[in-house]
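Example S7 (structure tokens).
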């Protein structure tokens, strides 16, 4: 039991010696600030003996051991900014350091998000600026052309082909409108013939004295109704093909022509801008603007020539497709109409087989239950 007491005593003596040293303030010259050297030594000796008596007690040793085992709380640890014996103004709690680091991280993330938002806004502003400048130039060129003050690039051969296409489209739209009207009227006539044939058949059963006459007429109307439905199939196929030619094939070519005309207008607008700059002074600022205008002019020129070639190719293919489609459809329309009004049912059916036209069953026009959902 004596060994632990010696260990605690040595530990206590070390702490007392430190305490005695801490109690003696030393200045930069090594002299005592308030007391003489002998008095300081005597006072230190007294303090050492008093501390040894206090620490040597069992209760004091237990308290000292508990403090050493438990240790200080790191969350409450402070950092002293000054030297030993300084004031408490230089003490900085560690919790404030953690909070400052978190605040610094959040401020960096907020600055990054703000910079990203600012970059997107600047990009959108540049797009709007370019669009506004381009619109201004094109509007100026359009007004100049309309009032005869500005010049425009003209391809006479291509312009003539475009005008022919527009006129052809108007005429084909008229044919399509009349063919649809014929289909509607003929459909009404077929429905009337069907109803009239049913009425004649009913009267033939209820009028014994006129049974044969009503019967003949009922059979005739039913035959006309059947041939009419066959003719309607041919006319509907004709209308569908004309509609595809007019509203899809021709319309696609006209959309390309519209893009070509817009490119022509932009090309002339930037060409006029470049010509205007070339007529001005040749200082450093103007030369930079001329170089930028020359680049934009070249870009618009390439775009204009590319779309002009596209229009030329599409017009060529459209003409070939139109001739092929209309040759087939006009032959179908002629043969079907002639066979119907000649009463040649076999020729009418043969015409539909020749052009691979399949008639729908009577109840096939009704949508399925999936389409109704």
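Recovered sequence:
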């Amino acid at each position: 039991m004596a060994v632990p007491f010696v260990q605690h005593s040595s530990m206590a003596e070390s702490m007392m010696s430190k305490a005695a040293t801490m109690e003696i303030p030393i200045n930069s010259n090594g002299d005592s600030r308030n007391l003489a050297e002998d008095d300081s030594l005597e006072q230190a000796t007294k303090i050492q003996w008093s501390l040894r008596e206090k620490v040597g007690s069992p209760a004091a040793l237990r308290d000292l051991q508990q403090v050493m085992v438990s240790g200080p709380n790191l969350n409450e640890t402070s950092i002293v900014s000054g030297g030993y014996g300084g004031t408490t103004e230089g003490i900085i709690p560690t919790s404030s350091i953690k909070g400052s680091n978190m605040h610094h991280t959040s401020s960096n993330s907020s600055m990054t998000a703000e910079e990203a938002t600012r970059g997107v806004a600047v990009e959108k502003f540049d797009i709007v600026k370019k669009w506004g400048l381009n619109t201004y130039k094109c509007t100026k060129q359009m007004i100049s052309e309309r009032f005869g003050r500005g010049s425009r690039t003209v391809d006479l051969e291509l312009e003539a082909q475009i005008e022919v296409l527009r006129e052809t489209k108007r005429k084909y739209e008229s044919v399509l409108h009349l063919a649809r009207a014929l289909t509607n009227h003929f459909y009404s006539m077929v429905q009337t013939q069907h109803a009239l044939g049913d009425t004649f058949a009913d009267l033939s059963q209820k009028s014994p004295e006129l049974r044969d006459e009503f019967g003949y007429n009922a059979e005739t109307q039913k035959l006309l109704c059947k041939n009419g439905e066959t003719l309607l199939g041919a006319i509907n196929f004709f209308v569908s093909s004309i509609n595809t030619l007019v509203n899809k094939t021709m319309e696609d070519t006209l959309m390309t022509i519209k893009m070509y005309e817009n490119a022509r207008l932009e090309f002339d607008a930037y060409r006029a801008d470049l010509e205007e700059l070339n007529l001005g002074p040749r200082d450093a600022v103007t030369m930079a603007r001329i170089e930028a205008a020359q680049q934009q002019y070249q870009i618009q020129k390439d775009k204009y020539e590319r779309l002009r070639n596209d229009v030329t190719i599409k017009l060529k293919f459209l003409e070939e497709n139109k001739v092929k489609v209309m040759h087939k459809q006009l032959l179908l329309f002629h043969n079907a109409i002639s066979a119907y009004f000649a009463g040649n049912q076999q020729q009418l059916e043969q015409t539909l087989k020749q052009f691979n036209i399949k008639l729908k069953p009577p109840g096939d026009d009704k949508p399925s239950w999936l389409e109704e959902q």
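Notes on this example. Residues 1-12, 14-38, 67-98, 365-373 have pLDDT under 50 and may be disordered.
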